[in-house]
Amino acid sequence: MVQVKTELPFQELLQAVEQLSPPDLEQLMFRVTNLQARHKSSNLSAKETELLLKINRGIPLETQNRFDTLVARRQSREITAEELQELLTLTDQIERSDAERVRYLVELAQLREKPLTVLMDDLGISTPDYA
Question: DSSP character for 44?
């Protein structure tokens, strides 16, 4: 439960959001993403809206948290054989999800007749820095 005033400056809204638990924050992000897509849909085709919804769909917070935990255990050399297998399975799942997202990005770039990098800049999507 978050208490807010009737008129809420943006900074106070962010402070209220900071109070949310991780599951509530994930739910809020999902709903905001859908709301954003609906707002933009008045200017977008149905196909663009569909692709944007798919692009913005992330992996579940629970999956990401488990992945992060297992990575930390592997880095500290405390991971069991079963956990290592689970980490490999989660890695495959996340990589498949990322590949699917790229496929949707490429499709949207083609639909908008833009280079992929330009579309990603337009959407505020950056490539991860693995260095």
Answer: S
The boundaries of the domain holding residue 106 are 22-123
**Joined tokens for residue 47:** 């196909």
Whether residue 3 is contained in a domain is answered as no
Residue with tokens 């849909």: 41
Q: What is the pLDDT of residues 1-42, one digit of tens each?
A: 655 556 778 888 888 888 988 888 888 887 887 777 666 656
Residue 71: Cβ-neighbour burial (10 angstroms; 0-12, 13-18, 19+): middle
Which two three-digit tokens encode residue 112? 């908008």
Q: How far is CA 51 from CA 10, 44, 93, in A?
A: 29, 11, 20
Task: Give the rounded distance of the alpha carbon of 123 from its chain centre.
Answer: 13
Query: What is the pTM assigned to this prediction?
Result: 0.62
* In the chain, alpha helices (H): 10-18, 22-41, 46-56, 61-75, 81-112, 116-123
Q: Is 15 among the domain residues?
A: no
Q: Looking at the chain, how many residues does it have?
A: 131
Residue 121 to residue 129: CA distance in whole angstroms: 15
